[in-house]
Design goal:
The chain has 44 residues and is an all-alpha fold. The protein has 2 helices and no strands.
Amino acid sequence: MLKAEAVVAGGLLLALLVWEFPSLRREARIWRMAGGFRVGHRYP
């Protein structure tokens, strides 16, 4: 029973990830254009 619940939870998580992937990719591109990790060093 526990294994079945884990499979269902994993499937839901995977579906959510696939559903959100295009917006996450867009956010990552915006973040890279804004400077990413380096932006903290630019403004002391």
